[in-house]
Amino acid sequence: MSSNCPIFPDDLHREISKIRNRIKKYDLQQRRLISLFRHKEIPEDCIFDEMNQLKTERLADTERLTQLEAMKQRQRDFENAEIRLEVFEELVHKNLDRFIVNDKKAILNALEVKVSVADGQVEVQGVIPANLLTIERTSA
Q1: Which end of the chain is more exposed for a tag (fewer CB within 10 A), N or C?
Q2: Lowest-confidence range among 13-22, 81-90, 122-131?
Q3: What are phi and psi of 114, to 5 degrees?
């Protein structure tokens, strides 16, 4: 599976589990190879080739696991931010008519809203700072 392709949460969970299981099996495979070598059932050069192959595969799987776990964390962070954004939007929408002009300007500044006009095109960009994502509802 390519590291650039989008991955759905269930697929991500399955791939993480599959890689974790493979990583656990590398120790068993190494012990088996060492046992075969001790009993002179496998030549020395073969054991080194096999051990190097296992080491390479384990390293690749460990790197992939790290990428997938980071992706899973980003998905969780995004879902949490999305929920908080909805709460923030609802709170602002609910109280918008109570805000004075300076309050509205402060909200736009906090959201880092930037408006640019070029060639008759209007572009609006905005970011919600992390400290605003933790706003909780309070009763007024």
Answers
A1: C
A2: 122-131
A3: -125, 130
